[in-house]
User: Which sequence fits this backbone?
């Protein structure tokens, strides 16, 4: 029998992005012991990559803004599939969480009065995103990290959790390996907060890193938790398309917030051609008004480039399909044109979008102050995730909480830009708080040694595949191609069925994914183990997409091109059935509270 | 572009050697892409760190042809490909495996630096007012992505191994960001002089040269900090004053 190192905490947080760090700070500050685990080094989680900003109705730039407008914008953006209570909490609490970051040392860009500056972003009625140039995520994660290291949190860097440990129906711990030597570790905990981020590595073209293999989604699913809204995957309209090796890397929406425009090969601003009815009254129909909007004229309506991401992505796909794309299969995003309007445009762009300037200069050899960029959609964010209680963030498994991108509910069918960073701190704090409460009310559980031995054996298996051994990188890459093709931006029943069939093949191949040499810092081995999670989230996405017979938000079905009132009455939930197969169920959205319904009505 | 040969360091703390790998290079590829391609094609166990692939997370630091670089921001087009490209780990830290080293020392050093301590809020609602002009300087320092390339090239660490007494350029940038933060009220000068050994720095500016975020580490962070330390601790009049001043 194998021996393992064991650590014991009241609250264990898995994931050290914005959500996990905020949860851990909350727990450690409430008098319980807290451990924090992350796959990479501290400060390198996805949150570090966020660019544009963090949405909160501070009203610093436009004092007409309020939590109720933010709430209504979030619901409209999510096409009303959101958990309305979470949308309410988020809109109300985001300003306090942003101010708290400042109290912990964050240095955001300022207004003339010396307050936190806010910028325009798609789907937000008023300038609402607190930001630092285009590196807001770095500011957030560093602030939380530098504050967190003084709170008594025990951090386990480069440790990967591969299974949640259960006692009866309750979670009591986690099983993990450390990267350095591949040694196994048992974590005992009274409560666990899942904050593992997204699933973007299931697709070929993605803005996401190697970490985004849907671990939290899959671990929770295996533990019996419900996943919800998994058909909704956000394809960000502006990823780099050229050169090939940078395809998918994000170009922040902030470019459009600062006045950047989208044009096709004919030089036409095609976004003016298709403005959805619900946004007609708030969107400008001419270039002159659009420009006034981005330069702060409060009477002007927003340019169509700032419509929601799902819509902009679809318009780009249409332009490319109809032959009006750029040379490398995207369209043009032009910020250089603002020199027609302002004298020091070059300096202005470098100051407002410094990392975009460098990114293009260094990776594509292109000067964005002079030339337009070529961009196209890239897999960016998963709205779907672990189903949680809106007050406590607890999943359907007792003792298991979730926050951040791996949790679901707030964003519905489509997330507004900037609503993730605020989500992380609002619900990260709440998850930390309620996990602490749970830990105080419950005693430690018993680790089941059989379960531990079994998962350890499973994790060692890639070193012993015999002659059927297959390279895990090849399997992962083939899976990404299939998911991109069949479960990508535009979907249909036939292809989704093919994808589900294809996934069975991949499951079989994953059993042969092999690793070599030894367990010391071995990426091949790690990739082989990650496959299981990728396959779970891929299947959940394909099944949910097949079950939603309409097009709504980020989910587009060419065989059901319209919205359906009937379909909009519920969310898709997947869970593991008694026989081990994936079950899907449609659950009705609870009727919205009267006062909130009225806010939505007033903001229509 | 054709096939290129890479000499990649393979080994662990007990030793190792360069191994040759060949892989196809296509337009726009960066060194990290080549490493991934080699991993996928012929060395799945080759260790390297990365996350963002866009110069934002500071994970992929290594030495490419002897130059400290982020692998994800080093384009193959900018390297001579008629001879092998060498890739090796940073040298100022203990090796874990291949291109990955143990940088945990940096995290320990940071923990010892006194944390941010803001003045009382300026407004009733608990918020502060700061002018953009007053935060520009701090924002420069806060661009740091903790790649530790500056630590890697600083001779005090790399050649003289003063890890016990010297915090290194990254942490002077960190300290400067705190000390020059308009809201901060803490005093870190004594620590800077004694525990963090800023005196060892002889302003060679090697750190500034390698910073991928183009932070002017020496001119904007280290020199002003050194001046503050000198003003506080070596100015004879101040010294006299301090003898009578109660310790804070
Ligand atoms: C390029 C880019 C730009 C973006 N810009 C914005 C923006 O401007 N505004 C905005 O609101 N949102 C933005 N987003 C989205 C936002 O950044 C993310 O949704 C958010 O940061 C996710 O935070 P998180 O805390 O949930 O997870 P992350 O920050 O991704 O952290 C996940 C953590 O979980 C750990 N982990 C994962 N699996 C395991 C495991 N098995 N065991 C142990 N640890 C594990 C990881 O190591 C990591 O520490 C952007 C995203 C990208 C990719
Ligand atoms: S300037 Fe100072 S800190 Fe920077 S490399 Fe030289 S000695 Fe080291
Ligand atoms: S100061 Fe520059 S070189 Fe040093 S760690 Fe920060 S980003 Fe890297
Ligand atoms: S991978 Fe993030 S800096 Fe290179």
Assistant:
């Amino acid at each position: 029998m194998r021996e393992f190192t064991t650590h014991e905490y009241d609250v264990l947080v898995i994931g050290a992005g914005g959500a996990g760090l905020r949860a851990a700070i909350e727990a450690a500050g409430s008098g319980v012991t807290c451990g924090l685990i992350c796959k990479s080094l501290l400060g390198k989680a996805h949150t570090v990559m966020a660019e544009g900003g963090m949405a909160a109705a501070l009203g610093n730039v436009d004092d007409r803004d309020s939590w109720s407008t933010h709430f209504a914008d979030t619901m409209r953006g999510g096409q009303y599939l959101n958990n309305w209570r979470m949308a309410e909490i988020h809109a109300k609490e985001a300003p306090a969480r942003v101010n708290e970051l400042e109290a912990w040392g964050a240095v955001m860009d300022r207004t003339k009065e010396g307050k936190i500056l806010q910028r325009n972003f798609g789907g937000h009625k008023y300038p609402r995103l607190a930001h630092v140039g285009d590196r807001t995520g770095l500011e957030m994660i560093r602030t939380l990290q530098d504050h967190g290291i003084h709170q008594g949190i025990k951090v386990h860097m480069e440790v990967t959790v591969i299974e949640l440990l259960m006692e009866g129906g309750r979670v009591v711990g986690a099983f993990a390996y450390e990267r350095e030597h591949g040694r196994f570790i048992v974590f005992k905990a009274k409560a666990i907060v899942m904050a593992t981020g997204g699933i973007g590595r299931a697709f070929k073209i993605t803005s996401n890193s190697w970490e985004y293999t849907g671990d939290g989604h899959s671990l929770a699913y295996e533990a019996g938790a419900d996943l919800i809204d998994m058909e909704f995957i956000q394809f960000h309209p502006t990823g780099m398309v050229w050169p090939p090796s940078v395809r998918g890397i994000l170009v922040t929406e902030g470019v459009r917030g600062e006045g950047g425009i989208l044009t096709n090969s004919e030089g036409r601003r095609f976004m003016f051609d298709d403005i959805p009815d619900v946004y007609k009254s708030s969107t400008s129909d001419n270039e002159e008004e659009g420009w006034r909007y981005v330069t702060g004229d409060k009477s002007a309506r927003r340019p169509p480039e700032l419509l929601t991401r799902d819509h902009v992505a679809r318009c780009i796909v249409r332009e490319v399909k109809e032959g009006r794309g750029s040379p490398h299969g995207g369209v043009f995003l032009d910020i250089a044109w603002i020199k027609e309007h302002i004298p020091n445009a070059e300096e202005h762009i470098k100051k407002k979008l410094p990392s975009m300037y460098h990114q293009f200069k260094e990776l594509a050899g292109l000067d964005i102050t002079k030339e337009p960029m070529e961009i196209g959609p890239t897999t960016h964010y998963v709205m779907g995730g672990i189903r949680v209680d809106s007050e406590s963030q607890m999943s359907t498994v007792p003792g298991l909480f979730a926050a951040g991108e791996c949790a679901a509910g707030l964003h519905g069918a489509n997330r507004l830009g900037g609503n993730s960073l605020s989500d992380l701190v609002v619900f990260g704090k709440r998850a930390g708080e309620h996990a602490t409460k749970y830990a105080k009310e419950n005693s430690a559980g018993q680790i089941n040694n059989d379960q531990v031995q079994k998962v350890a054996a499973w994790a060692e298996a890639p070193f012993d595949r015999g002659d059927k051994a297959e390279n895990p990188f090849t399997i992962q890459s083939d899976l990404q191609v299939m998911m991109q093709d069949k479960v990508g931006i535009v979907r249909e029943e036939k292809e989704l069925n093919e994808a589900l069939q294809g996934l069975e093949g991949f499951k079989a191949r994953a059993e042969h994914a092999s690793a070599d040499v030894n367990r010391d810092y071995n990426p091949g081995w790690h990739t082989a183990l990650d496959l299981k999670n990728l396959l779970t989230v891929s299947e959940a996405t394909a099944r949910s997409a097949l079950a939603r017979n309409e097009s709504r938000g980020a989910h587009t079905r060419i065989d059901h091109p319209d919205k359906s009132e009937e379909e909009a009455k519920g969310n898709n939930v997947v869970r593991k059935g008694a026989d081990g197969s994936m079950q899907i169920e449609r659950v009705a959205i609870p009727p919205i509270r009267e006062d909130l319904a009225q806010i939505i009505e007033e903001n229509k | 572009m054709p096939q290129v040969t890479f000499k990649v360091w393979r080994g662990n703390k007990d030793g190792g050697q360069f191994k040759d790998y060949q892989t196809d290079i296509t337009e726009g590829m960066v060194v990290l892409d080549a490493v991934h391609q080699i991993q996928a094609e012929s060395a799945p166990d080759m260790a390297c760190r990365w996350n963002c692939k866009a110069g934002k997370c500071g994970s992929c630091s290594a030495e490419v042809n002897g130059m400290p670089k982020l692998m994800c921001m080093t384009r193959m087009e900018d390297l001579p490909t008629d001879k092998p490209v060498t890739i090796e780990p940073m040298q100022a830290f203990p090796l874990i495996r291949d291109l990955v080293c143990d940088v945990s020392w940096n995290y320990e050093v940071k923990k010892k630096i006194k944390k941010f301590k803001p003045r009382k809020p300026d407004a009733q609602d608990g918020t502060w007012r700061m002018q953009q002009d007053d935060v520009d300087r701090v924002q420069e320092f806060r661009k740091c992505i903790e790649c530790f390339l500056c630590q890697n090239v600083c001779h005090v660490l790399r050649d003289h191994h003063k890890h016990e007494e010297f915090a290194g350029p990254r942490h002077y940038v960190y300290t400067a960001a705190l000390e020059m933060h308009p809201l901060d009220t803490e005093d870190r000068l004594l620590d800077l002089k004694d525990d963090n050994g800023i005196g060892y720095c002889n302003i060679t500016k090697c750190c500034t040269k390698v910073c991928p975020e183009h932070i002017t580490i020496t001119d904007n962070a280290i020199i002003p900090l050194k001046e503050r330390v000198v003003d506080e601790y070596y100015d004879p009049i101040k010294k006299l004053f301090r003898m009578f001043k109660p310790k804070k």
Remarks:
- The longest strand of chain A covers residues 184-194.
- Chain A touches chain B through 67 residues (CB under 8 Å).
- The mean pLDDT of chain A is 96.
